[in-house]
Design goal:
The chain is mainly alpha-helical. It has one domain. It has twelve helices and no strands. The chain starts with a helix and ends in a 19-residue tail after the last helix.
């Protein structure tokens, strides 16, 4: 099992190395996200199908889950990058702030995504090698959570798309639908996708497997860290404050940053509050 994971790590490193070369050639770091999504999905599918032991029903279910996640998100990101005609605001800010040091710092920024992908693929590997009969209660709960997560993501994306196309409103901030209860509902869906894997891994583990499969919790923990503290919410909210000003400050004041009902990071109330 470790040998398979190491092979996947090496391949993902090559994928992200290619992503670095491509973004230099085209001058748009946004394509790195496309490589990362498809690469992570492919790594997950390989881990699901080639995991030692396990049962084929569960292997196929996990392969379909990761394949669908990758194709949906990867194609969405690819269309967005191609359609923008410019670099994503987060990367454009990095390019401006880092100046002549941009490409050197990008090497680390991009290549560190390979081991991150390997951590996510490792959760698939742990979930797939369990040998309890398929279908189990844990399989059903994990699959249901995965489907719910995808529905949250696709609904949030569709609502944002309709907002951007709506010329009848002067609102600078989308606060409709899911965006009225979370400032980043698409990120909530993304976290729930990876929460589904430990449920399957731990729910089907027996004996010593339980201790080993605790490592599958690394997938949602890593994704939460990335979304909340690194490349998700922080740079996006900085840019939204810079471009939307008090309208976004008011939105921050009214709506939770991530999970509805949980306190948001402290923000200064906008004028008039």
């Amino acid at each position: 099992m470790i040998a398979l994971w190491l092979v996947v790590l090496v391949v993902l490193t090559l994928v992200m190395g290619t992503a670095y070369w491509v973004q230099r050639r085209v001058g748009n770091v946004g394509w790195v996200d496309v490589f990362w999504t498809f690469g992570t999905g492919a790594g997950g599918v390989v881990c699901a199908l080639l995991a030692p032991g396990g049962v084929w029903g569960r292997k196929l279910m996990l392969a379909c889950m990761l394949g669908f996640w990758s194709l949906r998100l990867g194609s969405y990101v690819a269309r967005r990058v191609a359609g923008l005609g410019r670099e994503d605001v987060r990367y454009a800010r990095f390019r401006k702030e880092w100046g002549s040091d941009f490409q050197r710092r990008m090497v680390f920024f991009i290549m560190v995504q390979a081991p991150i992908s390997a951590v996510l693929s490792g959760a698939v590997l742990l979930a797939s090698h369990t040998a309890t009969p398929f279908v189990s209660v844990a399989d059903g709960i994990g699959l249901a959570l995965f489907v719910a997560a995808i529905l949250v993501e696709t609904t949030a994306d569709a609502q944002m798309k309709r907002f951007r196309a709506d010329r009848s409103t002067d609102s600078k901030v989308c606060d409709r639908g899911l965006w009225s209860i979370s400032r980043h509902p698409n990120y909530v869906g993304e976290l729930l996708v990876w929460c589904s894997l430990p449920i399957i891994a731990l729910g089907n583990a027996q004996g010593w497997e339980i201790a080993v499969n605790l490592l599958s919790l690394g997938a949602p923990a890593t994704m939460y860290w990335l979304l909340i503290y690194v490349s998700g919410i922080p740079p996006l909210e900085r840019e939204m404050l810079a471009t939307r000003g008090d309208a976004y400050r008011d939105y921050q004041y009214r709506v939770a940053a991530f999970l509805p009902g949980f306190p948001s990071p402290v923000v200064s109330p906008p004028p008039g509050r």
